[in-house]
Amino acid sequence: NFSSHHLIGVGGDSKVYKGQLHTGSEVVAIKRAQKEYLQGVEEFRPEIELFSRLHHKNLVNLIGFCTDDGEQMLAYRTFKRPSLG
Fold first, then answer.
1. Which candidate in 28, 58, 66, 79 could, as Cys together with 73 as Cys, close a disulfide (CB 3.0–4.6 Å)?
2. The domain spanning residue 23 has which CATH number?
């Protein structure tokens, strides 16, 4: 559900929404590219590959992606720690 109620952030080319895995077991952050900023699959693939290999205690982990039906989305684990702000 990509309603404004679930919107948690806006960047230059995407919006980030709070979501939940189909199992209902985990809350995730979904980065959804805005339609006017969609990349070709060949440009999107390196981003997926890079973020899937990055693992650091101060970074959220990429756990999935979607490129179906004219959408480009990345799913990240969420921090369970206090905000840095």
1. 66
2. 3.30.200.20
Domain count, the chain: 1
Q: What is the pLDDT along the chain (85 residues), one digit of tens a residue?
A: 789 999 999 988 899 999 988 887 788 999 998 888 788 878 888 889 998 999 888 888 899 898 888 889 999 988 766 665 5
62 falls within a domain: yes
Whether 41 is in a domain gets the answer yes
Indicate whether 30 belongs to any domain. yes
Give the tokens for residue 81. Answer: 């720690």
pTM: 0.79
